[in-house]
Amino acid sequence: MNNSTFSRRRVLKTGAIASAGLALPTYLRADGHTGFTNAPGDNEVILGFNVPQTGPYADEGADELRAYELAVEHLNGGGDGGMLGTFSSKVLDGTGILGREVKYVTGDTQTKSDAARASARSMIEKDGAIMITGGSSSGVAVAVQALCQEAGIIFMAGLTHSNDTTGKDRRANGFRHFFNSYMSGAALAPVLAANYGTDRKAYHLTADYNWGYTTEEAVKSSTEALGWETVNAVKTPLTQTDFSSYIAPVLNSGADVLVLNHYGGNMVNSLTNAVQFGLREAQANGQNFEIIVPLYSRLMAKGAGANVKGIFGSTNWHWSLQDEGSKAFVQSFGTKYGFPPSQAAHTTYVQTLLYADAVTRANSFNPCAVVEALEDYEFDGLGNGKTLYRGADHQCFKDVLVVKGKENPENEFDLLEIVEVTPVEQVTYAPDHPQFAGGDLGTCNPGA
Amino acid sequence: MDQIILQILNGLDKGSAYALIALGLTLIFGTLGVVNFAHGALFMMGAFVAVTVSKLLALSHKVVDETRTDFLGKPLQVDVPYVYDWFGQGAGDTIIDWAVPISILFAIPIMVAIGFIMERGLIKHFYKRPHADQILVTFGLAIVLQEIIKYFYGANPIPTPAPSAFTGSFDFGVAFGFDPNAIIYPYWRLVYFFFSIIVIGAVFAFLQFTTFGMVVRAGMADRETVGMLGINIDKRFTVMFGIAAAVAGLAGVMYVPINPPNYHMGMDFLVLSFVVVVVGGMGSLPGAVAAGFLLGILESFASMSAVINILPGINQIIIYLVAIIILLTRPRGLMGRKGVMEE
Question: Can you tell me the ipTM of this complex?
Answer without folding.
Answer: 0.84
